[in-house]
Write a structure and sequence with these properties.
Layout (H helix, E strand, L loop, with lengths): L1 E7 L2 H6 L4 E5 L5 H11 L12 E5 L2 E3 L10 E5 L16 E6 L5 H8 L6 E8 L3 E2 L2 E10 L1 H19 L3 E7 L1 E4 L3 E9 L2 H18 L2 E7 L2 E4 L10 E2 L9
Parallel strand pairs: 1-5, 6-10
Antiparallel strand pairs: 1-2, 3-4, 3-5, 3-15, 7-12, 8-9, 9-11, 9-13, 10-12, 13-14
Helix pairs in contact: 4-5
């Protein structure tokens, strides 16, 4: 037998009722076998459909359903995300990414990104709005699988550099509690040409919202809910086997 440590995130943690669960499996068990075991732990009235469309990580790397698990592995159960980190501000860094619990200083980061050779600096400044679908927002709480999110953010920024040929990318995401008007995510792309900067910035926020394991809980005047995320891309989404519960 082997034992793995399962870390559910976002709404999956609420459903399983724990921040970490130790699960014993036979030698040679796969991710799919683990999901079958986890399905059995869901509340009797919780449909199996709740695990469909999730992604799974093994030791902070995305995994497939067929991946074989080993004793001591750390397995993350990742619901669709809400839409390497370094806090250095060295001027020569082509990539600057960070997760932070402090307010994001947008003006400073934008100013730091600019250089004389740039023809454009394109910025996406995601802020907390005061309502969602007509419900008044009190605050948002962001949580992440931090080790994995940091790696994914760094990789995302480096892909933007090579894919769009821009000079510099800054990507910072806030965690913890945010109030209306505060910045949750800041992307700054500096380039000699505006078209590349625009395209890189749009691609980064769209990809971040689908692949980086960060979740958002919205608290309204009349209740709270985990924000429904965008589905994971098909190449990383994992579907568990059918379980014993009725849908």
């Amino acid at each position: 037998m082997i034992q793995v440590r399962v870390l559910p995130f976002g709404i999956l943690r609420d459903w399983l009722g724990a921040t970490a669960v130790a699960v014993e499996l036979p030698e040679g068990a796969s991710v799919a076998a683990l999901l079958e075991c986890v399905t059995a732990k869901l509340p009797a009235r919780q449909p199996v459909l709740t695990l469909r469309g999730i992604a799974v990580s093994v030791n902070a790397e995305y995994a497939t359903a067929a991946q074989i698990l080993h004793d001591g592995d750390e397995v993350g159960l990742l619901p669709p995300v809400s839409g390497g980190s370094s806090d250095e501000t060295t001027e020569e860094m082509p990539v600057r990414t960070a997760l932070t619990r402090e307010p994001i200083d947008s003006e400073k980061l934008i100013a730091t990104a600019k250089r004389g050779e740039d023809g454009a600096v394109v910025v996406f400044d995601g802020i907390v709005r005061n309502n969602t679908r007509g419900r008044q927002t009190l605050h948002l709480d962001y949580e992440a699988y931090e080790e994995m999110a940091a790696r994914q953010m760094d990789e995302l920024a480096r892909q933007a550099l090579s894919r769009f040929g821009v000079r510099q990318v800054t990507l910072v995401h806030r965690l913890g509690r945010l109030l209306v008007g505060e910045t949750s995510v800041l992307i700054v792309v500096a380039s000699s040409h505006r078209a590349a900067a625009f395209e890189a910035c749009r691609w980064m926020i769209d990809t971040l919202k689908k692949t980086v394991p960060i979740w958002k809980k919205e608290t309204f005047v009349d209740g709270a809910v985990w924000a429904a995320g965008e589905p994971f891309p098909v190449e990383i989404a994992v579907t568990p086997p059918e379980g014993p519960h009725e849908g």
